[in-house]
Amino acid sequence: MTATIRNSTATRTPLLIGAGLAALWLALGLVSNGTTYHLAPLLVAAIPATLAALGGPGLSPARLIGLGGVGAVGALAVTAFLSATGNLDGPSLLPFGGAAVESVVFAGLGASTALVVGFVRSGADNDH
User: Fold this and answer.
1) What residue numbers bound the domain in which 30 lies?
2) Are 30 and 82 in contact (CB under 8 A)?
3) pLDDT tens digits, the chain, 128 residues: what are they?
4) Is 36 within 8 Å of 94 (Cβ atoms)?
5) What is the pTM of this model?
6) In angstroms, rounded to a whole number, what is the distance separating the alpha carbons of residues 20 and 61?
7) Which of 30, 29, 69, 33 is nearest to 48 (CA)?
């Protein structure tokens, strides 16, 4: 029972923080046309799985993958909305594509990095 409570709490808080970051990025994107928040998709995609993994032992691989997926989907949803409304027209750090392509690439990097951190952390927890 304790593990279930820990997993529930450890999942809910990182998801809320990730959703809050996505909402902040969405709001900023809607009011500041022509500005690109380069790290926003990376953070939105990475935060749920990373925070849950760093929160302590006991996070299952399935839950970790689920959190990584939720973070990536959140980042891609905000990217799609901002792009469709013409609010993702700023410059890109990448030598190819525009800001929307950059957001997709950075969301993928964020989710991938979070999963690596989570699995490394999970392996370290199992060594003790």
Assistant:
1) 2-127
2) yes
3) 445 545 566 678 999 999 999 999 999 999 998 889 999 999 999 999 999 988 877 678 888 899 999 999 999 999 999 999 999 989 999 999 999 999 999 999 999 999 998 888 877 556 55
4) no
5) 0.86
6) 24
7) 69
Strands (E), the chain: none
- Local structure of residue 95 (DSSP, 8 states): S
Q: Are residues 81 and 23 in contact, defined by beta-carbon separation less than 8 angstroms?
A: no
Q: How many separate domains does the chain show? A: 1
Are 59 and 127 in contact, with CB atoms under 8 Å apart?
no
Residues near 61 by beta carbon (within 8 Å), at least 6 away in sequence: 119, 122
Tokens of 127: 């060594």
